Amino acid sequence: MRDLVVAVDIGTGSARAGIFDPEGALLARADYPILMNRPEENHAEHDSENIWSAVCIAVKTARAKAGVAAETIVAIGFDATCSLVVRDREGLPLSVNRKGDPRWDTIVWLDHRALAEADFCTATKHPVLTHAGRVMSPEMEMPKLMWLKQRLPEQWARAGAIFDLADFMSWRATGSPARSRCTLTAKWNYLSHAGGWQNDFLSLIGLADLRDKASVPDETLPVGAAVGPLTAQAAADLGLTEACRVATGMIDAYAGAVGVLAAYAGAPERLSSQLALIAGTSSCIVAFDQTMKPGFGLWGPYYEAAFPGQWLVEGGQSATGALLDHIVRSHSAGGEPDAELHQRIVLRVQELRALHGETFGARLHILPDFHGNRSPFADPHALGVISGLSLDSSFDALCRLYWRACVAIALGVRHNLDLMQQAGYTVDTLHVTGGHLRNPLLMELYADATGCRVKVPKALDAVLLGTAMVAAVAGGVHADLGAAGRAMDSGALERLPDASLRPRYDRDYRKFLSLYTHRAELEQD
Prior knowledge:
20 strands; Nucleotidyltransferase, domain 5; alpha+beta; Methane Monooxygenase Hydroxylase, Chain G, domain 1
């Protein structure tokens, strides 16, 4: 029977593919690494051909593991980081590398080369910024596009198609230039609720020719729509059939939100109190509401970036898993931050906490803004702070620093939740997914340090599951996202905060906020 779907999740360092049945069971999955080029500070680049190849390998491997025929796959969906893929008028890769190396045609989401351009956008005070927390981030696409036009004008002259990575994948799979409402609304300042492109804003920032250079359409496709069937070449590359339909692409974090919250899509009054925490290299907190509730430092509200009729808003941290990796890599007692080393540190932290109690690392305080502050301050120039270091360079010293960095990450989530409450959102339950599920320290802290009920999906890869739900709707397996959520949701395990620890984390939170005050004092002229 033709009722299976493929979900593809393209992260920062790898592509993952999963085969799902109509009930949401993951039959098999496979991962394959992707390359990243870091030619200079704040620059990060992908090779989109390398990404396509990695996806094809992952899809073929997952299908082989599942032992299912290509003819049983009715649809495929893609989610990806908000990286920017640049192509020429023939559809060939166009370098975004300052040295002109042709293979690097994609600016990675975490690339901060366009800081000045982002500041320029913010200074315009244009109404579109209401849907960007009133501050433009260099992680958005408009600053990156401005950088390309201003710094690589010869490349801009040759541009003929520019994509968010998820839309590039659907284009590569189908040949269709259609774009997803999710990607354009969330990352391109496309106002899906107010006529789409704001031409006066594009002119103001020097991108009046964007729609021609990027070949972007006037209209977008909603999440769950079918872009089209696979081309013969794409079907051969992926090991699927030309009858396989391709779903609209999604931003990876929002696919995760769909994966943990789609079961509530048909009950707006319940959905509004459920938040998704998609936690990996960076972290995103996603909330939904039937009314537009903007707030300073919050990305959005974006209309129908995921569920029909719903506004999506996001708070986020630019470096969380990446911060822990950085601490492990840079400490003299650390090393390459692989899963085994993280696990060894976590186990030792647990031993030291049991031995020392509340005093373990108590004098260490960290601001986790090592890659800027996405929210609530919306300051991409922000820097991290560590207070309380000694000359101790032992492994236990690394463990102390690691533990307090975990505390700081959780307090940053609490800070964002406070901002969301101030903007009018109901903060009750956090549905957590992403790589942090494998870190028991963070999972404990997400409940105890925030005071929230935490739900952990039984399907541990909810990002892939969310993309599978979208593919199931596009393939006609389920009628809509609400139906897909109810049928494919695996349920969740619940963790309640330990009330006895509340005074400790309240105290840590007060010091966390005071550290922000002191940092601001130090940075005054």
